[in-house]
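Checklist before submission:
- one chain only
- standard amino acids only
- sequence pasted in full

Submission:
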Amino acid sequence: MQLFLDGSDIEKIRKFSKLGLIDGVTTNPSIILKSGKNMIEVISELAEIVSGSVSAEVSALDSETMIEEGIKLSEIAKNVTVKLPITWDGLAACNALYKKDISVNMTLCFSVSQALLAAKAGAEYVSPFIGRLDDLNLKGVELISDIKLVYSNYKFPTKILAASIRTINHVKECARHGSDVATIPIDIFERLVKHPLTDSGLSQFTADWEKTGQSII
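Returned file contents:
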């Protein structure tokens, strides 16, 4: 499973990218607002840091303007993926951009039927929002399994990009259910490596090694 960071914190994204752990980045209007920076500048910088997909979302709601914005965003860098909402206008824009060989991430997916339409329209990624489904007392990760089955049945190349991840357990469940990608908020990503038994075990090993009086270097 590929791991994307969901955010625009340049320094932290740079840090994890240097470790070879990050396959891409996703952004949205809310993330850009929080950054307080110019969208084009943010996307351009992220595209330089990360070699994989960098999702940049259009602001328009009609297909014609979506296409225009999508083309402009795609010109920022070759690894920019245009992010579109799953609406009829969004699907029309997706198909038009697909025919221009522009990568598209269809976002705000909450059903298999939406995912099916996104794949038919030529999307490279579809983003089911599992956390928001959980908010409605539905099991968001089950949507991943359902989409996976449909895509497998018909050999759709569209990748499942699990979004709206709220917990470390969400990351685990995305991997268990076969999501191709999980886009993870930076604060949650930072906690993936943590476990109390790792900390206690390391403390014990360190204490025992000091007692030996030895040095490897």
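Reviewer check: Residues 196-212 form the longest helix (17 residues).
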